[in-house]
Amino acid sequence: MTVPTSLHHRGLGPWSWLVLAVFAALPPVLAAFGLEFYTVVATRVLIFAIAASSLNLILGFGGLVSFGHAAFVGLGAYTVGILADAGVSSAWVAWPVACVVSGLAAALIGWVSLRTRGVYFIMITLAFAQMFYFLMVSLKAYGGDDGLPLPQRSQMGMGLDLKDDAQLYWVALALSALVLAGLQRLLNSPFGWLLQGSRENETRMNALGAPVRRVQWQAFVLAGALAGLAGALLANLSGLVTPQMLHWSQSGQLMVMVIIGGAGALWGGALGAALLLLLEELLSTYTIHWQMALGLLLLFVVLFAPRGVAGLWKRRSHD
What we know:
mainly alpha; 2 strands; globular; two-stranded antiparallel sheet
């Protein structure tokens, strides 16, 4: 079977192990120069790479503009926080439960919102996200608007201590690599081709007998579960979960990451997360008006690189 190149997404191939080795060496290199703080920054980039890639699955590859994706990140974070508050600190329990909770929430939201299209779909996902946001604000037992501090980071055993920022970084690196590799396999499967075909022409796919709504719903649930994993990691990194994690502005930030990196590109979410967060970290040391630079960058991408940074690289490689 011949697959159109536009539906096939290549990874780094044999270069993957070299890239992983370079990233794995980052914490000791930073420590050697007395820059341990940037290990936390790099971990944050990896966590948001997972969150943005999960959004890219439905936005870039499925054509579903969800404006409530941060709700799944926040629910994953709150799941870890609530379990830790109840004395459950094992990552092997809390993190999968966070994925399940976020996935179930996505299943409910997707079941309702996928019955609509266009601006109605956007508004329904936004409405559900805000419902969860105000729910967390109202839960005074778990901090309400002030948030819920974690008594400690999750425990993994096997000689790993997530209290060490470097070890948390390595765990986030391994999980982000697994997520990207899994998404590549998924997108290059018949399921991925159906999802991308639905994005291109949903009417034609329905006419061909493809289960469009079921494929979109399954992708929506998977994206929610992956966002829950990102939330679990984010809770451990920050040591505090707050309702702000579920706010619509956080969904907008994830969407900006996908647009800058390249919607519909395998590496789009990860590239966008790195560019946005590193730009924020760099410019915020010089001015409180760093959002202006972000606005200019987004304007440049929309006008001159509608397929994002990944699209620029792909176009250059074909020239």
